[in-house]
Amino acid sequence: MSTKGVYTALSGAMAQSLKLDTIANNIANVNTPGFKRDQQVFQEYITEREKEGTVINVPRIPASPESFYELNGADKSFVDLAGTYTDFSQGAPKATGNALDVTIEGEGFFEIATPTGVHLTRNGSFRVDGNGQLVTGEGYPVLREAEPGADVEARLIRSDSGQVRIEKNGDVLAGDQLLGKLSVSSVADKNALHKVGSQRYTFKPNFQPEITPVQNAQLSPGYLESSNVNIVREMTDMIGTTRLFESAQKAISAYDSMADKLVNLVPKY
Fold it and tell me: Which conformational region is residue 41 in: left (phi greater than 0), alpha (psi within -120 to 50 degrees), or beta?
C-alpha cells in the first residue's frame, strides 16, 4: 500500500496547526498598540510542476505497479508553506490622554534604536526615562530625523527638564526648545520586513533596506493606534481551521486503519 496519501493528509494537518498558532497569536495581541495581524499563506505542491511534460506518461492500460512506474512521482501532492503575510492596514486610533502617546496618520513607521540596530514600529507609546531620553515602552530610544548616514547616538532625543511634548507635525519640544522631529519613514517593499516580537520590524537578510522619510507626516498626539485584529474574523477563522485540522486527523486515522488491515488481515486469506 502506498504511503503517499497519509503524507498528503499529514501535511494538511501540519499546515492547519501552523495556521492555528498564527490565529492564536493574533487574538493574544488584539489589545497590543500598533500590532499588525499575520496570516499563513499555503500552496499545493504537485510534483508534476517540477517535471517536463514529456516525462509524465499516464498509462492507458489496466492499473498495475509496473504500469505506473513512468509517472516518476507525478501524482504526489501535499500542502506547502508559501510564507507568512502581515496585514499592514491601519488600526483605529484610541484616545489615551497621554501627551507622549502618538499615532501616525497613514503610511510610515517610527525609527527606534535597539542593540541589534535600527528597528521600525507603529507603536507610538513613548515615555521619558530617568536620563531625560524619549524611549518606547520597552525602553528603546526613539530617533529623530537626521541626514543619511548620521550616527545613531546623534539622533537620540533628550531633555534636561524632562518636560516633553509632541506636536502634530512630529516636532518634539521641551518648553520652547525644539529637541528634534520624530523620524517617520516609509518602506518601499513591506514584504521585506521581518517582525520582531509583536511590535517591531527589521529587514529580512536577503532584502536591501529601502527606507525614505515621510514628507509632512501627520501625527495625532494623545492617541495610540489600536491593533488591526478583528476578533470576530479571527474566531471564525479559528473554528474553520480547527474543523479542517480534525478532518485531516480523520484521514490520517483512516490510512492507518487501512495499513493495519493490509498488514495483519490480508496475509491470512
Answer: beta
Position 225 confidence tier, pLDDT thresholds 50, 70, 90: very high
Q: What is d(CA 40, CA 138) in angstroms, rounded to the nearest whole number?
A: 28
* Residue among 4, 2, 1, 8 at smallest CA distance from 248: 8
Task: Count other Cβ atoms within 10 Å, centred on residue 84.
Answer: 13
Domain ranges of the chain: 4-88+230-268, 93-225
* List of residues 6+ apart from 232 with CB closer than 8 A: none
The pLDDT score that the predictor gives to residue 175 is: 87
Length of the chain: 269
- 70-93 mean pLDDT: 71
CB atoms within 10 A of CB 37: 23
Alpha helices in 156-217 (DSSP H): none
Render pLDDT for 198-221 as a digit per residue (tens, 0 to 9).
Answer: 889 999 888 878 888 998 888 999
Radius of gyration from C-alpha coordinates of the chain:
27
Q: What's the pLDDT at 5? A: 61
Interatomic CA distance for residues 67 and 57, integer angstroms: 10
Q: How big, in percent rounded to 5, are the helix, strand and coil portions of the chain? A: 30, 30, 40
Report percent pLDDT > 70 for the chain.
79
3 state DSSP class of 7: helix
| Residue 41 in grid coordinates | 499563506
The torsion of the CA quartet 88, 94, 95, 99, rounded to 10 degrees, works out to -30
**Cell 520624530 identifies what position?**
182
